[in-house]
Amino acid sequence: MHTGTTLTQFIIEEQRHIAGATGDFTALLNDLVTAVKVISNAVNKGALIGVMGALESQNVQGETQKKLDVITNDIMIRTNEWAGHLAGMASEEMDEVYAIPNKYPLGKYLLVFDPLDGSSNVDINISVGTIFSILRAPVPNRAASEADFLQPGVKQVCAGYALYGSSTMLVLTTGHGVNGFTLDREVGEFLLTHPDMKIPADTKEFAINASNQRFWEPPVQRYVEECLQGKEGPRGRDFNMRWVASMVAEVHRILTRGGIFMYPRDTKDPSKPGKLRLMYEANPMSFIVEQAGGMASTGYERILDMQPESLHQRVPVILGSKNEVEVVVGYHRQG
Ligand code: AHM
Ligand code: MG
What we know:
Number of helices: 8
CATH class of the largest domain: Alpha Beta
Radius of gyration: 19 Å
Bound molecules: 2,5-anhydro-1,6-di-O-phosphono-D-mannitol, magnesium ion
Number of domains: 2
Largest sheet: 7 strands, mixed
CATH topology of the largest domain: Fructose-1,6-Bisphosphatase, Chain A, domain 1
CATH superfamily of the largest domain: Fructose-1,6-Bisphosphatase, subunit A, domain 1
Strand order of the largest sheet: 3-4-5-6-7-8-9
Low-confidence stretches: none
Shape: globular
Strand content: 15-25%
Helix content: 25-40%
Distance between the termini: 53 Å
CATH architecture of the largest domain: 2-Layer Sandwich
Structural class: alpha+beta
Order of helices and strands: HHEEHEEEHEEEEEHEHEEHEEEH
């Protein structure tokens, strides 16, 4: 039995080291943890509570929404809107910034999230997750506009994900390394099980959706081709391949045993420079990956340095074990 540090205890102890901290952040995180527990329960019960399947509706990206996309978005909103820590929220499932209702006080943080990432996997009982990013509101206690959210990833105060897998985990960073917590369902608490997670610098495992191969740019073509050649090719070693189609599961695997994950720029749809969204997928995951000693790039630039242009902006993502990401970035530099 694990009787170690709870997530709440961990956050309070971390906050003690921050001069002038008021406890607001701890309280915000507590609400987020509650949301994650409720979502974990809904995902876990699945068909028993009638939450599987698709809706007629589409989100702002033109993607068909699953019932659980909408339910989990609602859980995130309801759990986080009331306490007075936020000046606004934004989500993959909402076109516009969500304004905190007038009946609640406003606060100094902004919360951006993907309530159920990888939701195409939910009906087939494969891991999904929630991704979140916390920013400081440029003007505290005032209703946030879209422009207030458009801060580069380096400005994130905290980023994390919940993974609803064979166990439910919460992994997060506040800029002092990465820590992983596992939900003990009987106790109802997240307990620190994976302190100071580090991504090995080298790896033999890559993840990419190979069905898009004909649309990839030359540097990615070259990289994957060389991995496939294995021992006989220029890399001189065999590689292994994985693709879960759940970014949270992919990043978690990389944090646990190393690897490289790519959803690169491609020519499939010229209006979309990549599939994944900067504000609530690429930025929080890049913050976590860098804090664990890994690297995250578009192939052309560091993701965390990008100046966002819109809430639902898409970006190419290449992240994971440092030495391997450097190889791919090097190929982009060579053109
Ligand atoms: P979603 O937010 O609509 O679930 O889409 C994001 C997901 C990522 O989790 C995953 O890496 C990718 O889309 C999978 O894409 P594909 O369906 O092309 O394999
Ligand atoms: Mg997503």
